[in-house]
Specification:
The protein starts with 13 loop residues before the first strand and ends with a helix. The protein has three domains: about 140 residues, Alpha-D-Glucose-1,6-Bisphosphate, Chain A, domain 3 (3-Layer(aba) Sandwich); about 220 residues, Alpha-D-Glucose-1,6-Bisphosphate, subunit A, domain 3 (Alpha-D-Glucose-1,6-Bisphosphate, Chain A, domain 3), CATH 3.40.120.10; about 80 residues, 2-Layer Sandwich (TATA-Binding Protein). It is globular. Helix 1 crosses helix 4, helix 5 packs across helix 6 and helix 8 runs parallel beside helix 9. The strands form four sheets. Strands 1, 2, 3, 4, 5, 6 and 7 form a seven-stranded mixed β-sheet that branches. The longest helix is centred in the N-terminal third of the chain and has 15 residues. The protein is of the alpha/beta class. About 35% of the residues lie in helices and about 20% in strands.
């Protein structure tokens, strides 16, 4: 019987529980299918620190080499290090990680040569169809000449490339606490920051895919608590928190207060626009703050609003030639990084901006943090479409209110906006709200939640 991949093949990656939902035999078929769909003569493969990652990665490589494809294995790496390898070596790539999901999960993030995304509309649907077919009928016979496997360490080259994109030569000494969450940041941060005037205070740098200290998901405020306390204790200039595969970076200021990813997006956008002579397109998803397009325009750039999700952002960056893109979830995309996302490069921009002046980070980001946001609030619902329809009915026709459906439903007024999006993977609706002041934000947030949870 063909494997049912509907639960593990998402909009832009593969993700599920190992071995319940997928295992090394399926990983091998994914490797063969990836080889066939990309048509590549060679690919690059990397993996995170999860217990199941090395075996799944090797199985994927076996599937690819059986189709005659040469495989470069870069071993333990962050997701953005895999994107670096795909870009620098000009090879399609596969990264084995489930990002911030619990230990029993694993997944594959795939890209074409130059880190171009593979999503449902750009190859993932075809890969899924082949894996389902082959799991039923058996994989095709091996190629006449199997591919080879070579190992290559890309960490030093990845770090050097990142440092080449940000001028850190004249920054003042900084004390930085980094919470790697037992994820891949513990592998990459020491090398990236080596040689900089930075006193590094490491937290949870031991690679451990069982996540013994806290979830490697800095988007959840409870996972920032340890970092916030340590920043205050150390009198540090800032704190950085990375997710499990270290492609996302969250920032905490010297007071231990989280800095919104929208403020970081605006700050980095202003710096990237300055690097490009005050011209360029900047992508932002529809959940980011109103401050992002404002700052982009103030610095001579053109903001472009898009839906949530890295494959959509990367596609829009390629279409528009954008120099930078940011998401509310702390994914940051750079033209000079093959349009791929790298939280590490965003962190270097923050260090450069902070170290290039004498004030604290809180004062620096104030100019980029202009509105009051709710953060993302998830609600479990029985019927996503029914609740979205109820919100539409409640706000449609109200004076001064505009509705759009670029991604879920966005309701906008001159003083506030909110967006409600269904999760692709769970029976959830995700609410984000923002307003010009806190009482207004609280009011509109609670109004929307009352309808969602009715």
């Amino acid at each position: 019987m063909a494997a049912d991949l509907s639960q593990i093949v998402k909009a832009y990656d593969v993700r599920g529980v190992v071995p319940d939902q997928w295992d090394e035999s399926l990983a091998e078929l994914f490797g063969a299918a990836f080889a066939q769909v990309t048509g590549a003569a060679a690919i690059v493969v990397g993996h995170d620190m999860r217990p199941s990652s090395p075996g799944l990665s090797r199985a994927f490589a076996r599937g690819a080499t059986a189709r005659g494809v040469d495989v470069t294995e870069i071993g333990l790496c962050s997701t953005d290090q895999l994107y670096y390898a795909s870009g620098a070596l000009d090879l399609p790539g596969a990264m084995f990680t489930a990002s911030h999901n619990p230990a029993q999960y694993n997944g594959i993030k795939m890209c074409r040569a130059g880190a171009a995304p593979v999503g449902q509309d750009t190859g993932l649907a075809e890969i899924r169809a082949l894996v389902e077919k082959w799991s039923d009928e058996g994989a095709p016979g091996p190629a006449a000449a199997p591919g080879t496997v070579t190992r290559r360490d890309t960490l030093e080259d990845y770090a050097a490339h990142l440092r080449s994109l940000v001028d850190l030569t004249s920054i003042r000494p900084l004390k930085v606490v980094v919470d790697a969450g037992n994820g891949m940041g513990g592998h990459t941060v020491p090398t990236v920051l080596a040689g900089l005037p930075v006193e590094l205070v490491p937290m949870y740098f031991e690679l451990d895919g069982t996540f013994p200290n806290h979830e490697a998901n800095p988007l959840d405020p409870k996972n920032l608590v340890d970092l916030q306390e340590r920043v205050r204790e150390e009198g540090a200039d800032l704190g950085l928190a990375f997710d499990g595969d270290a492609d996302r970076c969250f920032v905490v200021d010297g007071r231990g207060e989280p800095v919104s990813p929208s403020a970081i997006t605006a700050l980095v956008a202003s710096r990237e626009l300055a690097r490009n002579g005050g011209r360029g397109t900047v992508i932002h998803n529809l959940i980011t703050s109103w401050s992002v397009p404002e700052v982009v325009r103030e610095n001579g750039g053109t903001p472009v609003r898009t839906r949530v999700g890295h494959s959509f952002i990367k596609a829009e960056m390629a279409t528009t030639g954008a120099i930078f893109g940011g998401e509310h979830s702390a994914h940051y995309y750079f033209k000079d990084f093959w349009n791929a996302d790298t939280g590490m490069l965003a962190a270097l921009h923050v260090l450069a901006a902070l170290g290039g002046q004498d004030g604290p980070l809180s004062g620096l980001v104030d100019r980029y943090d202009r509105y009051v946001g709710s953060g993302e609030i998830n609600s479990t619902v029985d019927d996503q479409a029914d609740r979205l329809a109820a919100i539409r009915a409640a706000y449609e026709g109200r004076e001064g209110v505009v509705l759009d459906e670029l991604d879920g439903l966005t309701v906008t007024n001159s003083d506030w906006w909110f967006n409600v999006r269904p999760s692709n993977t769970e029976p959830l609706l995700r609410l984000n709200a923002e307003a010009r002041d806190e009482p207004t934000m609280n009011k509109i947030r609670d109004e929307a939640l009352a309808i969602i949870r009715a």
